[in-house]
Amino acid sequence: MKSMWLGVVLVITTVLGCTGVPKGLQPVSGFDADRYLGKWYEIARLDHSFERNLSNVSAEYSPLEGGAIKVVNRGYNGETGEWKQIEGTARLIGDRTVGSLKVSFFGPFYGGYHIIALDKVDYSYAMVAGPSRSYLWILSRSTSLNRETYKRLVDSAAELGFDTTKLIDVQHDRMTNPQSSGEKAKMASNPKIILTPCPQSPNCVSSLAENNRHYIAPIRYGGDDAKVRYEILSIINSLKGARVTVSKDEYIHAEFVSSIFKFVDDVEFYFDSAEKLVQVKSASRKGYYDWGVNRRRIEKIRNLLNQKEII
């Protein structure tokens, strides 16, 4: 059976021809389609069958003759270990200065794609609705979006009647190099190897995460690298339930064991001496929620370093 995923742009075969704007929503005005072209990354979405299990989702828009827009969507299926790609065509609906389009990936059948929020200065982020409030995407030109902007978009979506409690943060932890075109094109994958990536569950934070749920700022420092490394090792050894398991020039791994239930968390530090940054990750080994434990742990270490005037 042909795969029915989309990436960022909407086509819904169960509501063929449904391109209208959901009641109560208003596509942005003053829209410039030429500035909207290029690559967008999916930051968050409401779940649906044709994007299920996909991470690292992006869409790239380029001009076609007659005012149409070529759409190439890509995403990584974590269950199959394969990249998926599909191409489609988008067209503006009505006034070209209004952010309302129709998109087709399957012949003459179109679905609505309505831009309901947009950074009109830099075209750096957008929020897109489909033909109903069951479909919502938050997009960015980069693989992450600052927390203030993300929260503002989510709050706006909630006020417009979207169930934002069901938003899925989209992980971006792989690079893609297309090897061929077409719906089932496979791509070479080069995952980051500095720190192990966070899982989809929220019980993890990482300075290399590219979604708002997992992201935490790296530790920026000045002075001697060896001094920073020494102080981090000292802090780990001073914390209850912690032990260093790997200690190398550029990398430290530690285990933190909870006092009552003996849950184990893995904490990693990678020293980027060129940028004077410590990339950090803290993740629960089991379970799903961590109630903020991993984030508080990294911030505590950051604060202790600050007290030592390291950062």
Can you describe what's shown?
With 311 residues, this protein is of the alpha+beta class. It folds into two domains: 13-189, Calycin beta-barrel core domain (Lipocalin); 204-307, Kinase associated domain 1, KA1 (TATA-Binding Protein), CATH 3.30.310.80. It is built from four helices and 17 strands. The protein has helices spanning 33-36, 147-159, 225-238, 293-307, and strands spanning 38-46, 54-63, 69-77, 82-92, 100-106, 109-118, 125-129, 136-140, 167-169, 176-178, 187-189, 204-206, 219-220, 242-247, 251-257, 264-272, 277-284. The strands form three sheets. The protein has an eight-stranded antiparallel barrel. Strands 12, 13, 14, 15, 16 and 17 form a six-stranded antiparallel beta sheet that branches. A hairpin with a 4-residue loop joins strand 16 (264-272) and strand 17 (277-284). The longest helix is centred in the C-terminal third of the chain and has 15 residues, at 293-307. The chain is elongated, with a radius of gyration of 22 Å. Mean pLDDT is 85; it is low at 1-17 and 176-193.
